Every structure is written in C-alpha cells, then in structure tokens.
Q: What sequence folds into this?
C-alpha cells in the first residue's frame, strides 16, 4: 500500500531515510549515528520522543515506507525497526540543548533588549547549530534573518543576522538574563559572544 504523503509520521520517516543508501540493509554504525543524532538534537530538530512515536507509527501503518524507487522496502523497514529498538534501549532521553521555535514566536521577542552579539556569520551559526534561519523580519537596525530558539535552561532567544549569509555580527535578543544566554550560546556554537 502506498503511503499518503500527508501521513502524520511521513516527515520523520523522510528525514531519517533521506540520503541513506537503502538498496540493502545498513550497518550498525549507520543506525548508531542516526539514533545519536536524534538523542542529542544534531540534524534532527524534533524531540526524540517525536521520532520514536512517528517511526513506530509508520512501521505499524502497513503503508509503503520507501519513498523512491532506489530504496528497498525491506531495507527501509529494517532501518526504522532497528532505530526504534535502539531508541528504546537508550531511554530515558535527555532534553535537547535547544529547540528551534516557529518564527511566530518572534512576536514575543519584539522589543526585547539586545543581550549581545555573536561574532560570526549567519552561515557560521547555522552550521554550528544544524538549523536554518527561516524568515526575514524588520528591526530598528533594518531587515534581518531570524532564528528563534528555546534553550534547555528556559530562555527564548532571537538571533538576528544580516541578510547576507557571510556578513558577520548576529544580535541576540531576549527578555532573560543576558549573561546566562550568551554563555549558553557560546557553548552551543563555539562562537564568541560579546555582551550588548
């Protein structure tokens, strides 16, 4: 049975299998890398529980899980089954160091003070966090690319980057403690953060 492109679990399955050679069964190292990335939040941006739930639901759906002709259905099912089993084995899962919020959260940050500045480009930060700046917003400093994060310690933070991806200097805005936020961002990105 062909899977509905709108099945609630479909995005997670595609995210897991995209770019993986699934003509044959994958090795244990591939499964381990995928599970580790889901647990620590690198590359996989949803909570670990979401991936576990979605992959399990996909396997139970009875629908086709291979999303193109170059993938073997048995290999795809084997990969997802092994990932679910390994996620179960590694419980409990820690919270990710941060989650990317939808840009609609920007409204709660408008008017927040600039806590500091990351001395890197939009590209540097996107690569360090494995997340993309998704939208552009108007700010008093002009048009900026936006990335909104919820840090594990609690603060919601807006990163406002110049529109040009290589231009340096990303403003950090938050209603929370600037020192704590900058320290946490410095640890996450490896990029120096200068207080505002």
A:
């Amino acid at each position: 049975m062909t899977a509905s492109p709108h099945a609630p679990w479909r995005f997670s399955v595609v995210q897991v299998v995209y770019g993986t050679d699934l003509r044959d069964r994958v090795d244990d190292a591939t499964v381990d890398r995928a599970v580790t990335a889901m647990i620590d939040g690198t590359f996989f941006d949803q909570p670990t529980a979401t991936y576990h739930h979605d992959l399990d639901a996909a396997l139970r759906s009875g629908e086709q899980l291979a999303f193109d002709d170059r993938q073997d259905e048995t290999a795809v099912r084997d990969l997802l089954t092994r990932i679910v089993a390994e996620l179960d084995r590694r419980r409990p899962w820690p919270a990710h160091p941060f989650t990317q919020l939808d840009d609609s959260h920007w409204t709660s940050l408008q008017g927040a003070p600039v806590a500091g500045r990351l001395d890197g480009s939009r590209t540097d930060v996107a690569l360090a966090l494995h997340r993309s700046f998704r939208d552009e917003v108007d700010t008093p400093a002009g048009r900026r690319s936006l990335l909104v994060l919820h840090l594990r310690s609690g603060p919601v933070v807006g990163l406002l980057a110049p529109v040009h991806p290589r231009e340096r200097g990303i403003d950090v805005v938050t209603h929370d403690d600037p020192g704590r936020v900058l320290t946490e961002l410095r640890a996450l990105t490896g990029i120096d953060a200068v207080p505002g």
